[in-house]
UniProtKB/TrEMBL annotation:
It holds the Pfam family ABC_membrane. This is ABC transporter ATP-binding protein/permease. Keywords: ATP-binding, Membrane, Nucleotide-binding, Transmembrane, Transmembrane helix. Residues 358-590 form the ABC transporter domain. It comes from the Archaea. Residues 23-292 form the ABC transmembrane type-1 domain. The keyword Membrane applies. The keyword Ribonucleoprotein does not apply. SMART domains: AAA. The chain crosses the membrane at residues 20-44, 77-99, 180-198, 263-285, 291-309. It comes from Methanospirillum purgamenti.
Amino acid sequence: MVTLKEYIHQLHYFVQGYEYYLIFLFTIAVIIGIIDAASIALFYPMISEGFNIQADKIPLYNIIESVSSLIPIGSTFVHIGLLFVILTATSLCLQLGYWKIAFIFQREIIIKTKTAIFSKIESNDYKFFVDSKQGDLINLFNQSPLYVQNSYDRLLSLCADLMTSFIVIVMLFVISPGGLLLVIIGGGIFYLIINSIGKNISEKLGNLQIASGQSENKVINEYISGIKPIKATHASEHWKEQYIHALKVYWDRFAEFMFIQRIPIIAINSLFYITIGVIVLLLYMFYADNFILVIPVLGTFAAGMMKILPKAMNMGTYKLELKNYLPHLMKVYGTLQEERYHKILNGSITCNEIESDIVFENVNFSYGHAKILTDVSIQIRRGEMTALVGSSGSGKSTIVNLMLRLYDPSSGKIILNGRDLKEYDINSYRDIIGYVSQDPFIFNATIRENIFFGHDYSETELIEASKLAHAHEFIMNFPDGFDTIVGDQGVTLSGGEKQRIVIARAMIRRPDLLILDEATSALDNISEAAVQEAIDQVSKECTTLVIAHRLTTIRNADKIIVIEKGKIVEEGSHDELLGIKGIYWIMITNKNDTETLQ
């Protein structure tokens, strides 16, 4: 359970830098409360004058009479009536101004919060994305920040209502302490009712919303991402059942919880009339002989109650809603404060080029309790093509991840240009890398934007890169050429076309280090031959690291490194490794398709 101190701390965290909005809004709320209280106080002299009742003058009466007399026309009743209209209109204008500023404040908060979430996620280590569910992340971006904004919306409403109610109550106390006591007793009973009914229900509802939203996002994301195999194998029913289950997590309890929360709201109108009735009866009992003299007090209290009642109703609702929003607030706050995924420290040295071999010195790497690499020492020679081969799970992709600094070694070093790779600025180092994975990432934009990938290049560079990747011809066959929209995940493209666009993305960077992780896996034989020729050409101009299962991809490599169970077992050229008839030779000769390494 979050304490009040922790809750206030978390609320303040999101408004840092915008405190002046809160001060300004609080000042306006106080002014609105004073004006509303003053307008209600006018009912006393208005009723007294209107019904010609010689009632006792309230303490504020002389002030009201002095101000209203400044109006040059009409009787005292007209003066007071016009002052009431002026005060009410002023209150309206101030309330409009209050909420205009409040919504601007909320806009700034939600933009700041969403930006902070993205910046935090972007700065997290790659391990964060491995550990997190996609649906959870989508929910964190789309849903939770809105509840943070809603929290401030309700708090601002609560602040305005509290200020007005407090000042009106002070005014009613000045008019009749006894009458106010009755109001307070009635309000206290209402508070006890709503507090006992609503305790913990809204917070539970908020937690269920998070759990249900995350489950829904996960199912929908998986369903859309895998729609082709799902449709092709008639597996939709499984995802439909998961989606219905995710809905039931929240909505099965929704009706029950919402009904319980609605009881006080339904009952409060009746409570108001009961309270008014009790007050009238009590006043009649005490002032039976001079009941007409208490009519101004009764009218003023009725007006005050009419002002306070909706706000009291709202306060109960706000409290329940704030408890509902609390889990979302805590989730966003917890994410922004999370420090577990900042283990990859950035260096300070700019890396402009690769000037020497890349050397792994006794590198070990573990993921959790599982050891992936054991005492790996290899040399990736500058300007040459080095290939990694081995069975699935042998550690090839882990070496690539270490090269990309998605992870750091558990022990040992990776030496580049005579320095530990950790000493270099990560972004400057990654700027000289071209990377192509076996799962081509294509986003819903033009082919041009997919190749540029957030950077700026000339048209000449674009055409050269697409030709190198053997992509120019099929791109030009589209009516819009490079400006063709490819759809979500490149749905309008074949697997080979998507892969060649990603290869063009790597080629256009003219990298010093080219990393190809199964880069030709999705290509047909004709496209692969053309792309392989391009890879062979580009690899002459840079240092290249290749992971491949196809023999054609690596047979021309300057050096082939065989890795098994996280250990280096063989090194040499294609012919050298065949000559020693070791594991590499077995990997080739034991396959029916001699062009495939596994």
